[in-house]
UniProtKB/TrEMBL annotation:
GO molecular function (one): ATP binding
Every ABC transporter domain range: 2-216
Subcellular location(s) of the protein: Cell inner membrane; Cell membrane
Main location: membrane
Membrane topology field: Peripheral membrane protein
Keyword Mitochondrion recorded: no
UniProt name for this protein: Cell division ATP-binding protein FtsE
UniProt family annotation: Belongs to the ABC transporter superfamily.
Gene3D superfamilies, per database record: P-loop containing nucleotide triphosphate hydrolases
Origin species: Spiribacter pallidus
Length: 218
């Protein structure tokens, strides 16, 4: 489903974040991306929705080379890849409902459809009762759940998460990982970069371990 072939990424200024990465993630897989700080985990994730482009090699999704994707198809690709960040990036001046609705508004969905989908997504993350709340009134774990609802509201086949539990305590981190497992169990391919090795090991999924921009194992 997600294939990297000889992928290198050099940022302007010379930082070589990835150096010839070859790997394949199967449809419906749940995988963790690990490695020391600066190993290239975020860069690896950012190449999947084309937030970055490779300097060398190819990234393919469902057999299609993203390098050949015309610019006007990028929004469509991004609706198929739900993204979750450590700092969840919610809009502070919009309530929970409006934050989750954002990808649907951008996609031009109708009002009724938006209402239905947003409430279904909030229900899945257990926050239906908070739809009118402003993000600042929520706990860190709840804010991350809103971020997850926003990522899944377009029902993407792929979820990528960059340090989604980085700011959470162990119990909340475990709850967030259980949410990811629930989405994965209904077929969503899930790729999570994390430093939380004890939690990852307790879950037992495949680990892709990067070191200095290379696949060390996995
Ligand atoms: N936008 C950028 N411009 C220049 N260099 C960058 C940029 N983003 C990342 N890098 C560099 O690329 C390398 C890999 O960074 P990346 O963020 O992918 O690593 P990481 O494994 O996610 O690190 P961390 O665990 O600290 O988040 C680092 O040397 C970093 O400084």
């Amino acid at each position: 489903m997600i294939r990297f072939e000889g992928v290198g990424k050099q940022y302007p200024g010379g930082n070589e974040a990835l150096r010839g990465l070859d790997l394949h993630i199967e449809p419906g897989e749940m995988v963790f991306v690990t490695g020391p700080s600066g190993a290239g985990k975020s860069t690896f994730l950012r190449l999947i929705p084309l937030l970055e482009r490779p300097s060398r090699g190819r990234v393919l999704i469902d057999g299609a080379d993203l390098g050949g994707l015309p610019g006007h198809r990028i929004p469509y690709l991004r609706r198929r890849v739900g993204m979750i960040f450590q700092d969840h990036r919610l809009l502070d001046d919009r309530n929970v409902f409006d934050n989750v609705a954002l990808p649907l508004i951008i996609a031009g969905r109708g009002r009724d459809d938006i209402g239905r989908r947003v409430r279904a997504a909030l229900d899945k993350v257990g926050l239906l009762h908070k739809e009118h709340a402003l993000p600042v009134t929520l706990s860190g774990g709840e804010q991350q759940r809103v971020g997850i609802a926003r990522a899944v509201v377009t029902r993407p086949p792929i979820l990528i998460a960059d340090e989604p539990t980085g700011n959470l305590d162990p119990a909340l981190s475990q709850e967030i990982m259980q949410l990811f497992e629930q989405f994965n169990q209904v077929g969503v391919t899930t790729v999570i970069a994390s430093h939380d090795l004890s939690l990852i090991e307790s879950l037992g999924y495949r680990r892709i371990h990067l070191e200095a921009g290379r696949l060390a194992w996995g």
